[in-house]
């Protein structure tokens, strides 16, 4: 049996959550992951300053639908005043939680002093958090961090304590430094150290690819929830796998036909929710289609063809061809 975690007044099943991923975890992605068991989802990161200047694109990213709840909207920025103003605006979209990104490693975010750059300035990170907490009122504020800026400046426990003191309701920890980006191995010991340093809930993130690695994260770190990022690429079923196993039930992996059906369902969602024409919306669907084909015979060639897709009909035909190829090799697990 699984139990529940409370972040502020929000109840979340202690199975697995979907991590915020810019350019990936959009509305369609979140809906698919929720359908297959994600306990909690977080929006793509949104610029606090962009929202304050009425940036239409960033405002669209804040939309929360009932099907996605419980859901957080994630903001990034390094100026307390802008963060407070942005939180006030985001509250109009009725998120369950406000999350602040202090872990993003990409240069264009770090270069502004936001994201994981805040790991180098704990005082400012605490001030940004405190401003968000005051503006959020009864809505809990959480923060996502990394283990540190570099291998010789691992300071996640110290950072977490400062954020807790500033009013954060939970801390999510990715067990890599900023310098690592997404290479090397995530360090569960850092997640464990953060858990031991604070009293608020801690969410463990990094290298969760199946039930085994999820279970290991729970057991080795004592964390309160596990969060999955790249392990969900083309595999929303990972959430059902984890929830089923945690309930002590037998998990049946999806057949290839099932995967292709869900891939096409995912593409239809992207097309339905996009304001772009079919051909342009398909550009955003291409990488998702390719991810669903990972791990099969001839998948490299088919993934390449996914990046040429310009219509739903082409995707449907490619999925059918891919299934036939696997059947011809006796590799279909229908």
Structural topology:
Elements: E1 4-7, E2 10-13, E3 16-18, H1 27-35, E4 41-42, E5 46-47, H2 48-52, H3 56-60, E6 71-76, H4 80-90, E7 97-102, H5 107-110, H6 122-136, E8 141-148, H7 156-165, E9 170-177, H8 188-197, E10 202-205, H9 211-221, E11 225-228, H10 237-246, H11 256-273, H12 278-292, H13 299-306, H14 312-328
Parallel strand pairs: 3-11, 4-6, 5-6, 6-7, 7-8, 8-9, 9-10, 10-11
Antiparallel strand pairs: 1-2
The fraction of residues assigned to DSSP E strands is: 15-25%
Biggest sheet character: 9 strands, parallel
- Please count the helical segments: 14
Structural class: alpha/beta
Which superfamily, in CATH terms, is the homologous superfamily of the largest domain?
A: Aldolase class I
Average of pLDDT: 96
Total strands: 11
Radius of gyration, in Å, reads 20 Å
N-to-C CA distance: 29 Å
CATH topology of the largest domain: TIM Barrel
The level-1 CATH class of the largest domain: Alpha Beta
H/E element sequence? EEEHEEHHEHEHHEHEHEHEHHHHH
């Amino acid at each position: 049996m699984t139990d529940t975690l409370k972040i502020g007044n929000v109840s979340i099943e202690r199975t697995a959550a979907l991590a915020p991923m810019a350019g990936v975890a959009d509305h369609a992605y979140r809906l698919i992951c929720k359908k297959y068991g994600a306990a909690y989802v977080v929006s793509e990161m949104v610029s606090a300053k962009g929202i304050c200047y009425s940036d239409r694109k960033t405002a669209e990213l804040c939309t929360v639908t009932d099907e996605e709840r419980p859901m957080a909207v994630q903001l990034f920025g390094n100026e307390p005043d802008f963060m407070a103003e942005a939180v006030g605006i985001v509250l109009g979209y009725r998120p369950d939680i406000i999350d602040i990104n202090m872990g993003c490693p990409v240069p264009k975010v770090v270069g502004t002093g936001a994201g994981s750059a805040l790991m180098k300035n704990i005082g400012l990170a605490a001030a940004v958090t405190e401003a968000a907490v005051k503006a959020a009122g009864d809505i809990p504020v959480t923060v996502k961090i990394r283990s540190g800026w570099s291998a010789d400046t691992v300071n996640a426990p110290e950072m977490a304590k400062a954020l807790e003191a500033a009013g954060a309701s939970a801390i999510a920890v990715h067990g890599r430094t900023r310098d690592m980006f997404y290479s090397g191995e995530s360090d569960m010991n850092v997640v464990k150290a953060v858990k031991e340093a604070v009293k608020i809930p801690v969410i463990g993130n990094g290298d969760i690819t199946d039930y085994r690695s999820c279970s290991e994260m729970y057991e080795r770190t004592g964390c309160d929830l596990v969060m999955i990022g790249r392990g969900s690429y083309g595999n929303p079923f990972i959430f059902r796998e984890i929830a089923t196993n945690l309930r002590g039930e037998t998990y049946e992996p999806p057949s290839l036909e099932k995967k292709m059906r869900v891939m096409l369902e995912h593409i239809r969602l992207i097309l339905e929710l996009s304001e772009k024409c079919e051909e342009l919306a398909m550009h955003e669907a291409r990488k998702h289609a390719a991810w669903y084909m990972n791990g099969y015979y001839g998948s490299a060639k088919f993934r390449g063809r996914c990046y040429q897709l310009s219509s739903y009909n082409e995707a449907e035909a490619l999925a059918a061809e891919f299934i036939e190829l696997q059947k011809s090799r006796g590799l279909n697990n229908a």
